[in-house]
Amino acid sequence: MSTAILTGQPVPGSPLEGDLRSLGFDVRVASNAADVETLLAALPGDQRVAIVDARFVGHVHALRLGLTDPRFAASAVPGAVTAKPEARTALTHALRTSAEATASLPDSLAEAMESGATDVHRPELGTLVATVPTDPQTRNEARQAVATVDDEAVRLRTAVKSRDGFFTTYCISPYSRYIARWCARRGLTPNQVTTASLLTALIAAGCAATGTRGGFVAAGLLLIFSFVLDCTDGQLARYSLQYSTLGAWLDATFDRAKEYAYYAGLALGAARGGDDVWALALGAMVLQTCRHVVDFSFNEANHDATANTSPTAALSDKLDSVGWTVWVRRMIVLPIGERWALIAVLTAVATPRVTLVVLLVGCALAACYTTAGRVLRSLTRKATRTDRAAAALADLADNGPQASAFAALKPGAWLRAAPVLAFAGGAALVGTALSNPYGSPVVVAAAALYIALSGLALAMPLKAPLDWLVPPFFRAAEYGTILVLAAKADVNGALPAAFGLVAAVAYHHYDTVYRIKGGTGAPPAWLVRAIGGQEGRTLVVALAAALLSATDFTVALTALAVAVALVVLVESIHFWVTAHKRGAPAVHDEGEPA
User: Fold this and answer.
1) Among 4, 11, 32, residue whose Cα is nearest residue 102
2) In angstroms, rounded to a whole number, what is the distance separating the alpha carbons of residues 448 and 428?
3) What is the pLDDT of residues 319-337, one digit of tens each?
């Protein structure tokens, strides 16, 4: 239960107390600051507390935004301030220093908390009203302003992500927001909708795996419905302000699980018709994962960069002022809405092979476009990268003990070009695997060279303009090597086993990203050591290919996939559930469409 303390003399006919109760607050009344302090001291320390001026006039949704958002320790709107347990001390201190304030007490408290170095979130209200009238005339004007704006319409409109893809914006969000409201009114949570979206996508993958035309059509329809639910869960979170650490993790990881499970379903369905497309399915997963790593690495490298200027970015901003170019550029990058629509339609009308080939071509073009733009931005911007950014890139690199031993050598400045080292090592390894027959020991030698170059790439902090390319190069090298060696084995089951291994490792890499984005830090070092690091796993796969027959190699890939999946899943689930229970800060990703 949360408690709201009304300060000052109650205003006859004011709906404020009822509005606060509708938001889940137990309402208390205090006549002055001294009474507020007494009431505050008597409340349990684990409660959220809001202090609201009794003269407040405004929309209920303005109060909801200002007083109930779980992502912020302290927040305020004109005439109201709130503090979660972690900000209660700052609120109490502000109350003591603002006891003689003549202005609205909540506003004075918010200012005092900010001056005391406490971050106070102030939501963007737009057309919503939140004010403290000081005389009857301004009160009447404020009430008229409240009456002219439908806050439920505003609430529905702002439930939709402000920046999204064309397909999502025009084909899904116009009606999915109403599904979100329907869910909210029936007490459903975003996590429940997220889980329903996952189950729907898994059923779609099962339909695709039947290999029949009817199954493919059903799979396409179910995939679209899964995406509708995927949009609904975020809109429900924004509509009802049900943000949570666990929810953000589920939403992000389930998106990847749904898409990659569907690729597997397509491969199984094709196999029933006598067509082996496992290499294409695995290639699509590798390409899409590498695209995401490019996004994450670039954003982390520039998350808190100072003096951030770039002519390329300026040109992008200029193009944004031309309406149609915004949508063209968002569609070119093939975000999740366009991507899933493409997959669904092609599944229903074409074959799995056509679907995966078109997907690979589209994603490759999108990857070239986005990566080229980010390289240009990095080369032309003048920015100072921070230690935090360098640490995040090092965590995303996922180097294990073998590479770390070479990093400890601390080579001279002549080896400073980290992206060059990462690219050279990865290209040499994948190229060697491609140009040699299965079982060649030369691939093992290339893997050893790759380990050395992986370590040297991280010998110094990753603060150079293009150092954000290091993690994507590592992902491409590891996943690409597994793909090539499994294809070279040329036995039944090798590519599906490789698909499982890459899926398990990719989950670990995504989990690392979401922990960093959520501010909870990278996975523990023992976990990285336990699963070998990216270079250690690559060496193990190369050794297995050199020492084992193709059939035994398939068994080894399967065993490695199961082992990695068990370790990373158990640790990850334990971490996120524990973080949720201990009240880790709620997060919600409002960034680029995935």
Assistant:
1) 32
2) 11
3) 555 566 777 878 888 999 9
